[in-house]
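Board notes (copied after class):
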Amino acid sequence: MVQFSAAVSAAHKAKDMDQVAYEESCSSCQDIFKTKGSVSGCRHHAGRGRLSRLDNARFAQDYINCMSRIKKRNLAGYVPSPESMCNPLELVNIRTYLLATNDLIGWKLWTMILFHIRLFLRADEGVGFTCSQFLPRLTSVDGFGAVTMLAVTISGKTDKKKPIVLTMYRDDQCPQLCLVRTLLAWLKLSQHSGEGSLFPHDDDPTKFYPAAKFQVKCRELCMK
């Protein structure tokens, strides 16, 4: 939780949004999207449909209460680990290493790593992702035909039965870490059918990639 807070803070600060208030999703906007396929929003959010949670989650009251409880009870006597999270440069180095293998296995592993990082997913949450979870109606394309945004549905962390909408934006400032480019390249290079698992098993395309194997691969990469 502490690491997550630090990551969210760094991401918002990089975009000069570290003090932007948090906003919950709007059920009315979601109902309009489900029934009419419109993203324009309800009368309260006209032109800016609030289909998912927005801005800095550190300012959400639930998060504030949770962190207060954790600090008082769970973190009593806690000593931070000297290990640090991967920084962007280290991720670029991982990308360079994997793509140097010049095969689809390396590209798939890189795509999986970036997919989980960008969407804040645990290993077991992303490996079972299917192509049906993409939301074509929310895909954005610019005047030159380049995809600028993709959207997916993911099971919520607190309520597994209630899926949430997550968006991925084209990153022109750091193309190496752009998830939109990476996903589209993976689909093209692998000649993916667009059905079933997004990250199929190496030996059996009808099965999902094992979460335990993915964790081992990531651990081995970080130790190289």
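Comment from the instructor: Residues 104-118 form the longest helix (15 residues). Residues 40 and 47 are 5 Å apart (CA to CA).
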